[in-house]
Write a structure and sequence with these properties.
CATH superfamily of the largest domain: NAD(P)-binding Rossmann-like Domain
Structural class: alpha/beta
Number of strands: 8
Strand content: 5-15%
Oligomer: single chain
Order of helices and strands: EHEHEEHEEEHEHHHHH
Distance between the termini: 54 Å
Largest sheet: 8 strands, mixed
């Protein structure tokens, strides 16, 4: 492992929570935790060895090799306008959607990206060793430094330019956020009937494993891809009193059937 680095965490939410602990466990030094709400910064700092909590965005006296901004995407640009960093500091964000170019208006700092392709929940313990981390920076030296930091917590580190990162983030929304929402619908339907959601766990696990072993569209199953109209109508009847769920069901059924027809034409 390369020499440990000192890190300042800008943010005290889910991403900062997991990154801070992982970085420290890997031997790096988390020297500061910033949050607009001091109590949140204090709460995270208490779980770390030497981190100083603050709600002051003036970091001019903070000695850190890397400042990691782990804030909501829609506040990062405005935060950069008011934050004060030591001159020539390396400041990176963890966003999947924000480009590296957001740092161009801040000539006094060096910009970069440290993007973990993962979903974070504070209450769920996580080993980041298998979490891919995409790196981007303006200079080879900064890329190297960020890769060393990333490799201290993950085995999967790679160069990831802004355009590709946006596509990965979009795909991740479908694969993670939308999938979780659909699981939420399944959970709701079952619990309303006092049925155990875990009955679906083997099915969901097999679906995910199969999706990464084959092209997902090619292994689609279910009444929609079979064009089993009788079953589809039965499902729609069950959803009569849940119009929002019925709308989702109809949209996905239509899209599955459309994709199946496209694949069938290609196979002819």
């Amino acid at each position: 492992m390369a020499s440990p680095l000192s890190v300042a965490l800008i943010g005290a939410g889910n991403v900062a929570w997991h990154l801070g602990r992982a970085l420290e466990q890997a031997g790096n030094h988390v020297v500061l935790v910033y949050s607009r709400t001091l109590v949140k910064a204090e709460f995270l700092s208490e779980t770390l060895l030497h981190a100083h909590p603050t709600q002051n965005p003036d970091f001019s006296l903070v000695a850190a090799d890397v400042f990691i901004i782990a804030l909501k995407d829609d506040v990062v640009v405005e935060f950069l306008k008011k934050a004060v960093f030591p001159r020539s500091s390396l400041v990176v964000h963890t966003s999947g959607s924000l480009p590296l170019t957001i740092f161009e208006q801040h000539a006094a700092i060096r910009g970069g990206v440290f993007y973990p392709v993962q979903t974070f929940s504070r209450a769920v313990a996580m080993d980041l060793k298998q979490t891919p981390i995409g790196i981007e920076a303006s200079t080879p030296d900064d890329v190297s430094l960020l890769k060393n930091l990333a490799f201290s917590i993950s085995e999967k580190v790679f160069d990831l330019p802004s355009d590709a990162r946006k596509v990965i983030h979009l795909a991740a929304v479908f694969a993670c956020n939308f999938t979780n929402h659909l699981l939420g619908i399944s959970h709701d339907l079952l619990t309303q009937q006092q049925l155990n959601f875990t009955v679906l766990q083997p099915l969901v696990t097999e679906t995910i494993q199969k999706a990464f072993a084959h092209a997902p569209f090619q292994v689609q199953t279910g009444p929609a891809v079979r064009f089993d109209q009788k079953i589809i109508e039965q499902h729609q009847q069950l959803l009569q009193d849940k119009p929002d769920y019925a709308e989702v069901y109809a949209l996905l059924t239509e899209h599955i059937q459309k994709k199946a027809q496209e694949i069938a034409k290609l196979d002819q």
